C-alpha cells in the first residue's frame, strides 16, 4: 500500500519517498483529529475558524473550561471532520478528583469512530502534547 498522507511532524524516510507517510486510515484519522485539536483558531491560513486550540484552555479554571472544550471539539468535528463520530470524551482519566481542581495539567481521551471505514479508535493527549 502506498502512503495516504504525510506523517507529521515531517521526517526523512526513503521507504515511500523523501518523507515518512501514513499507510493506514486509522492513523490518518487520528492525525487529522489531533491536528484539529491542537491548531489554534487563526493559525491556519485562509481558514481562521479552523481548530479547537487546546493551548488556550491550559491555565483556565477547570470547573468552567471542560464544558467549553467539549462544546468546541463537537462543533469543530461537526464542521471539519463530519465523517468522525465521537463516542466519549474523558478528561484526566485516572487522576484523583481533589487534585484536579488546582491543577494546570490537561489530559483527554477521546474515543471515536469512522463508520464509513468501520473504524473504532481513540486519541489520547497529555499536557505535554498541547504545549
Q: What percent of residues adopt helix (DSSP H or I)?
A: 25-40%
CATH architecture annotation: Roll
Q: Tell me the strand percentage band.
A: 15-25%
Number of domains: 1
CATH topology type: Nuclear Transport Factor 2, Chain: A
Q: How many DSSP-defined strands?
A: 5
At the first level of CATH, what is the class? Alpha Beta
Give the uncertain stretches in residue-range form. Answer: none
SSE run:
EEHHEHEEH
State the secondary-structure class.
alpha+beta
Shape: globular
Tell me about this structure:
The protein is α+β, with helices and mostly antiparallel strands and 131 residues long. The protein has a three-stranded antiparallel β-sheet with strand order 3-4-5. The chain has a two-stranded antiparallel ribbon with strand order 1-2. Helices cover 31% and strands 19% of the residues. The protein has helices at residues 25-38, 62-80, 97-100, 127-130, and strands at 5-6, 21-22, 85-91, 108-114, 119-125. The model has no long low-confidence stretch (mean pLDDT 86). It has a single domain (5-130), classed as Nuclear Transport Factor 2, Chain: A. A hairpin with a 4-residue loop joins strand 4 (108-114) and strand 5. It is built from four helices and five strands.
Amino acid at each position: 500500500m502506498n502512503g495516504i498522507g504525510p506523517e507529521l511532524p515531517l521526517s526523512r524516510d526513503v521507504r515511500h519517498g523523501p518523507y515518512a507517510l501514513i499507510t493506514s486510515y486509522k492513523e490518518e484519522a487520528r492525525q487529522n483529529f489531533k491536528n484539529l485539536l491542537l491548531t489554534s483558531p487563526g493559525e491556519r491560513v485562509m481558514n481562521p475558524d479552523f481548530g479547537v486550540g487546546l493551548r488556550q484552555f491550559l491555565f483556565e479554571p477547570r470547573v468552567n473550561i471542560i464544558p467549553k472544550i467539549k462544546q468546541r471539539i463537537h462543533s469543530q468535528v461537526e464542521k471539519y471532520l463530519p465523517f468522525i463520530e465521537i463516542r466519549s470524551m474523558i478528561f484526566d482519566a485516572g487522576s484523583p478528583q481533589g487534585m484536579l481542581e488546582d491543577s494546570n495539567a490537561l489530559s483527554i481521551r477521546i474515543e471515536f469512530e469512522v463508520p464509513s471505514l468501520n473504524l473504532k479508535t481513540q486519541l489520547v493527549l497529555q499536557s505535554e502534547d498541547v504545549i
